[in-house]
């Protein structure tokens, strides 16, 4: 873990999809079905984790073994958004999500939620799961896609809260989460519950764990 000149962790920024929200199974199912209709059968969840990256055009191109066309990418996005929306309210939180949130709160740290998911969708789900009171800020993407720059959004997110990045830790499930934290001077802990393979997460040098309760423990002890 990279050393930082920071005091005790005062704030934890949580990612949503694949981190607090247990949606990787649905995401993988939709991707597998969609790619099969485009002539790429047999794509598994492990395939998705192994190839995952942003921008998403590069991710799908890696699964295809060639660049995807604009028409193919539009079809993939439209079908994903339609099927994901249909299953949205059936999605649960990770099994230990509430325990992890309680642990952070019990240590006196504040918490917020920053997601690349559309803001309207995020706000709806946070209320659906009755967890809004746990966060001092809940912020999704103002854009309809999730290929934005998370580092810039994290910087603005922390600035809006008047929180020193050096006293904060991001908990997420992608390399992007680590890179955003690194760019802002925050710490990061990565979980294997989402879209990225453990090997890719470990290659960042960040602490990697398989569950949120352990991630919260590492975040609170971050140095």
What does this structure look like?
The chain has 223 residues and is α/β, with parallel strands linked by helices. It folds into two domains: 11-22 and 92-220, HAD superfamily/HAD-like (Rossmann fold, 3-Layer(aba) Sandwich); 24-90, DNA polymerase, domain 1. It contains ten helices and six strands. The radius of gyration is 17 Å and the shape is globular.
Portion in strands: 5-15%
What is the name of the CATH superfamily of the largest domain? HAD superfamily/HAD-like
Helical run tally: 10
At CATH level 2, the architecture of the largest domain is 3-Layer(aba) Sandwich
Name the average pLDDT. 93
The whole-angstrom Rg is: 17 Å
Produce the secondary structure layout.
Layout: E1 11-14, H1 24-37, H2 45-51, H3 56-64, H4 70-87, H5 97-106, E2 110-118, H6 119-128, E3 138-141, H7 150-160, E4 168-172, H8 175-184, E5 187-191, H9 198-202, E6 207-209, H10 212-220
Parallel strand pairs: 1-2, 1-4, 2-3, 4-5, 5-6
Helix pairs in contact: 1-4, 5-10, 7-8
Quick take:
The chain has 223 residues and is α/β, with parallel strands linked by helices.
What keyword list fits this structure?
223 residues; Rossmann fold; single chain; alpha/beta; 10 helices; DNA polymerase, domain 1
């Amino acid at each position: 873990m990279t050393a930082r000149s920071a005091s005790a962790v005062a704030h934890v920024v949580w990612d949503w999809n694949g981190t607090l929200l247990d949606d990787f199974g649905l995401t993988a199912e939709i991707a597998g079905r969609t790619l099969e209709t485009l002539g790429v059968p047999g794509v598994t969840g492990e395939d998705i984790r192994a190839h995952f990256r942003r921008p998403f055009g590069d991710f799908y191109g890696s699964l295809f073994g060639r660049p995807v066309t604009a028409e193919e990418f539009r079809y993939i996005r439209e079908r994903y958004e339609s099927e994901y929306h249909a299953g949205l309210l059936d999605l649960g939180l990770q099994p230990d999500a509430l325990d992890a949130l309680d642990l952070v709160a019990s240590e006196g740290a504040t918490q917020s939620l920053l997601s690349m998911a559309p803001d309207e969708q995020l706000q709806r789900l946070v209320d659906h799961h009755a967890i809004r009171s746990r966060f001092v800020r809940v912020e999704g993407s103002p854009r309809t896609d999730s290929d934005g720059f998370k580092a810039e959004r994290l910087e603005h997110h922390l600035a809006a809260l008047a929180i020193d990045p050096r006293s904060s830790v991001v908990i997420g499930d992608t390399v992007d989460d680590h890179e955003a934290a690194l760019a802002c001077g925050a710490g990061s802990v990565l979980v294997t519950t989402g879209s990225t393979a453990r090997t890719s997460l470990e290659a960042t040098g960040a602490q990697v764990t398989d569950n949120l309760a352990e991630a919260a423990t590492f975040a609170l002890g971050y140095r």
